[in-house]
Specification:
The chain is of the alpha/beta class and about 90 residues long. It is about 25% helix and about 15% strand.
């Protein structure tokens, strides 16, 4: 399993938001804690909200099953060349 900047990636999406919650808890914060994400399940939103000062999420899904791909008009894998072209902008 590949590591992300905040820890191991999940295989089980039922744990949505659990890793972020785990990473937030042990630290003392010198200022407001702000978390901004583009989309979230309702369960993850509710799990993280009490742990932070501000949680910004324009798309909180109320669907019984959550997938990030549902929040996007177009979701597909990109070829390396497409990514390189996008990064040149």
């Amino acid at each position: 399993m590949e590591d992300s900047p905040i820890g191991p990636k999940y295989k089980d999406r039922q744990e949505s938001g659990a890793l972020l919650a785990k990473r937030l808890l042990p630290y003392e914060h010198s200022g407001p804690v702000v978390v901004a994400v583009p989309t979230s399940s309702m369960s993850a939103f509710r799990r993280i909200s009490p742990l932070v000062d501000h949680l910004l999420c324009p798309d909180v899904s109320r669907l019984p099953f959550f997938a990030v791909a549902n929040a996007h008009g177009e979701w597909r894998d990109l070829e390396d060349e497409e990514i390189e072209d996008l990064l040149k902008i």
